[in-house]
Amino acid sequence: MERTLVLLKPDAVQRGLVGRIIARFEAKGLHLSGLELRSFPTELIERHYEVHRERPFYGNLVAFMTAGPAVAMVLEGVDAIAVVRRLVGATNAREAAPGTIRGDFGMSFSNNLVHASDSPESAASELALFFPDPEQRAEWSPVSEPWVYNVAEELS
Ligand code: CMP
Question: Is 57 in the pocket of ligand 1 (CB under 6 A)?
């Protein structure tokens, strides 16, 4: 099992899309092991997007991400990082493929609804940033797991 960090950005919250987006991840077979809605502090968002600090869009990005509450979640599954990135779609929502979350719900490069970790290294550091306390998460295995995966081939 792999873990990845997903943020539902303030546009997803304001547009009332939180439930529909989470439902897509759950329907795919990923399971939640952490979930929190809050207004994240500017310093945390700045650290999260540290790699973009020198980019021209950095100021707008931090302002947008702190303009209202957002949702942080931990999703788990086999190859969860790559699976989630494919479900989310291309960064520019106008160009994201139909069937992806951004492709179906978004029209913007900046207001693109979702952030998802892009590698095992970024997942590890982003999970540590948003879910530093093990008590923020629940360790559990869905009863559906042996039906979502072939246990002998994929979970051994
Ligand atoms: P995200 O996956 O959260 O990672 C960085 C974010 O910066 C990206 O989604 C976009 O919302 C935002 N962004 C805005 N402009 C750009 C740009 N020109 N290139 C990349 N990311 C951008």
Answer: yes
